Amino acid sequence: NTVSSKKAELDRQGKALTEEQRKEIAAVNAGRKLAEDRLAALRDEIKKPAEDWEAAEEARVAHHKQALDRLNLDRADAGSTSEQVRHVLHDIENMSVGGEWEEFQPIAAAKREQALNHYRSLLAAAEQREADAAELARLRAEAEERARKDAEEAARREAERLAAEKAEADRIEAEQAE
């Protein structure tokens, strides 16, 4: 029985020691966690201005790139009407390529000049295509009118010929009847 009581006593003392150790470890871990949280907050506070600047810089660059998309050469094509091309050309002609473009200014100026040349060429082609189509429609209308008048004239001559034949036939019949 004494052995059992000694064993139980040793076990209790061991548990007490480990419990003390656990409390010390928990206190150390809580201190580490508090220090880690404070340092992380400090790190985030220090990094915030740089991150805000990076976000603003990304937005600024994205804005310029989006504005450059207005100068793309695919806003009208060879099948577009002159009105559509004129609309795009007007938009590009009214687009400023000054200092507000910052470091993108040379790119914007070059792309604007290229776009103006491209769309002016498209406009000339569209206007020529539309003028050709209008001329073709006018010529077709004239040909249809001429064909209609020719048909009316042919019908009138045929009616006159038939009337003359009938008159001749009536005259011959009248002579024979006499």
Protein model, in words:
- The protein is an all-alpha fold.
- It has three helices and no strands.
- The radius of gyration is 49 Å and the shape is elongated.
- The N and C termini lie far apart (175 Å).
- The mean pLDDT is 94.
Unreliable stretches: none
User: Which percent range fits the helix content?
Assistant: over 70%
Q: Approximately what portion of the residues adopt beta-strand conformation?
A: under 5%
What global shape is seen? elongated
Query: Structural class of the helices, strands and pairings?
Result: mainly alpha
Estimated radius of gyration: 49 Å
User: Mind summarizing the main beta sheet?
Assistant: none
Average pLDDT, rounded to a whole number, is 94
* Number of extended strands: 0
Number of helices: 3
Q: Give the distance, in angstroms, between the N- and C-terminal Cα atoms.
A: 175 Å
Q: What is the string of helix and strand elements?
A: HHH
Oligomer: single chain
